[in-house]
Design brief:
Length: 62
């Protein structure tokens, strides 16, 4: 997966203390990429947009 043009953003729920944060890149065609903000060169999880929307919807209700 080519992430060269990814535009990463932190969760709006992330605090300013640099704790456990995730970053999301949703500007790529057909994929939403997620990574740990503390390890920007580490592993990336990839989801199709429908699955990602379902996950975020579930997380908002939890």
């Amino acid at each position: 997966m080519d992430l060269t043009n990814s535009k990463w953003r932190k969760s709006s729920r992330s605090g300013s203390s640099g704790g456990n944060c995730v970053e999301v890149a949703d500007n790529l065609p057909g994929v939403v990429a997620v990574r740990d903000s503390k390890d920007p060169f580490g592993p990336v999880l990839a989801f199709d947009p429908t699955t990602w929307r379902s996950f975020v919807g579930f997380a908002k209700r939890a």
